[in-house]
Amino acid sequence: MTRIDRYIGNSVLWAFLIVAVVLLGLDFALTFIEQIKKVNDSYTIQSLLQVILYRLPGKLAEYIPIASLIGTLMGLGTLAATSELTVMRAAGMPIWRIGFAACQPILLASLLGMGISEFVSPIAEQKATLIEKFKDQESGTFSLTGGVWLKADNNFVYIDAADDTGKLYNLQIFSPEGQKLKYIRTASTAEHVQGTQWQLNNVTETRFNEDKIEKTNMEKANWDVSITPEHLFLATQEPDSLSLSQLKNYQTYLKQQKLDSAPYELEFWITALRPIASLALVLVALSSVFGPLRSSTMGSRIFSGVIIGLAFQNALNLFGRMSVAVNFPPVIGVSIPIIICLLAGIILIRRRG
Description:
LptG/LptF_permease, 10 helices, cell membrane, transmembrane, LPS export ABC transporter permease LptG, 353 residues, transmembrane helix
């Protein structure tokens, strides 16, 4: 049986790889078409291509469940079309054994996706974000969208971008005094010195006095703030661009500060449960190949896989967002569509015998 298991696994694996490449290619093309309007003198075609390429590892990890579903439908569907699955069944090979062989390459791909989400995509996403932010810095403008606002001690701080070395880019520090604004500081970068001490570079300070407004330019200035470099970096990142360990770390920090950590919890469980979601969709695909799609064309299988995959992804987003909106544990919201797929797949496979 080992040779047959390997044969089934190879068929599913090659189909999975083809689907993954096609999905990434479509994503690349559509993103390029959508983002081409942003190209200008400071944000060139080369920069846009770099940004899209840096974000492909994260996209690959996201597409693994859907690619697993369509790949299994294609791989096993090809064997069904050539009556190879019929011969295997006639030889006494149970459906669960065929399913086990099909799940092995998908499980390996899912674990690879977890590794990408943990070690590759966060770094690549950070580089892509910095390239996008630098286009504003090179053109001499400040962007007040796409970054993050923080309340640090008694000040309100806007940070356009940050990297994992603790360096901050394009800061604006608003310091109020009662109901009035005392001063605004802008800095091109900030670097952590030690403890609560930071060094601001290329600083412009605007002070609002009773009778006049004073504007001062400084090459460097000190900034005393209690937030750590690590948490400042995590605060500037979107939840879907962080690794599992970073998501867990920032969740803990937000809970300690009695702040809302639900978006980060939601993204943590979506990423952590992605391998189980992939296996659940493989079970659905397996039951379909031995059921209504047994004698259908390859186009019908692909279409069915896309519809099921979209329905699953929409259900995942719906229940996940609903759990955040109604203050329900995100792990339950993410688990509901996965459990439904698992139960549906198991029930249908048992009926096929």
